[in-house]
């Protein structure tokens, strides 16, 4: 099963250079609760961004897959060079945690989407690729201040 999790603002903004454009404690807690100890997949840029944030502390996930076309490897991570092939063949429960490039490729394989809608216009330069959200139906929704935590299921 493949799940994608991300936060985006009214304009589908998700990033500013290689960091998040905002700081919402509630969203960070939500993200942690859904990914702690889990098998995650992320792109090389997102991995480097998270390492910058966690510094010497270990990333709080279980198994970590990192997608990259470059010939690099990261401690404690399983590198994925063929992202489509991986997503097609995996039988694991994998949570895709970014960024833009990896979300774009993973969308067609997604069973569940965990989207935090931020009811604001932030500044940044990385946007979630537009796609047809009507292929998914909302199965849970929870508004907290300017954040709306939604879960979608394909179908
Ligand atoms: N708002 C949120 O919830 C959220 C969450 C996560 C990340 N973000 C934001 O997203 C941005 C980063 O996104 P990004 O698109 O730059 O980077 P990314 O998705 O984290 O990483 C992309 C990596 O995937 C590699 N790649 C591309 N196609 C591939 C394939 N077919 N197989 C294997 N690897 C492949 C790329 O290789 P090449 O370098 O060779 O192209 C690159 O190294 C940042 O601004 C970050 O803050 C936001």
TrEMBL record:
Cellular component GO terms held in the UniProt record: cytosol
Pathway(s) per entry: Cofactor biosynthesis; tetrahydrofolate biosynthesis; 5,6,7,8-tetrahydrofolate from 7,8-dihydrofolate: step 1/1
Species the sequence originates in: Acholeplasma brassicae
GO molecular function, one term: NADP binding
Ranges of residues in domain DHFR: 1-155
Key word Ion transport present: no
GO biological process terms held by the UniProt record: dihydrofolate metabolic process; folic acid metabolic process; one-carbon metabolic process; tetrahydrofolate biosynthetic process
Top EC category: oxidoreductase
One Pfam family named in its UniProt record: DHFR_1
Enzyme Commission number: 1.5.1.3
UniProt keyword terms in alphabetical order: NADP, One-carbon metabolism, Oxidoreductase
Official protein name in the record: dihydrofolate reductase
Family from the record: Belongs to the dihydrofolate reductase family.
InterPro entries: DHFR, DHFR-like_dom_sf, DHFR_CS, DHFR_dom
């Amino acid at each position: 099963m493949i799940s994608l999790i991300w936060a985006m603002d009214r304009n589908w903004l998700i990033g500013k250079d290689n960091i998040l454009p905002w700081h919402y404690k509630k969203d960070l807690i939500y993200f942690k609760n859904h990914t702690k100890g889990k098998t995650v997949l992320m792109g090389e840029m997102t991995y480097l961004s998270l390492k910058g944030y966690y510094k010497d502390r270990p990333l709080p996930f279980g198994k970590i897959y990192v997608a990259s076309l470059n010939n690099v490897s990261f401690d404690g991570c399983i590198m994925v060079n063929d992202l489509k092939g991986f997503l097609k063949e995996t039988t694991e429960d994998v949570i895709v945690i970014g960024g833009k490039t990896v979300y774009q490729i993973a969308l067609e394989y997604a069973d569940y989407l965990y989207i935090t809608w931020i009811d604001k216009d932030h500044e940044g330069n990385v946007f979630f690729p537009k796609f047809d959200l009507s292929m998914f139906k909302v199965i849970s929704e929870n508004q907290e201040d300017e954040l709306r935590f939604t879960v979608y299921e394909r179908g």
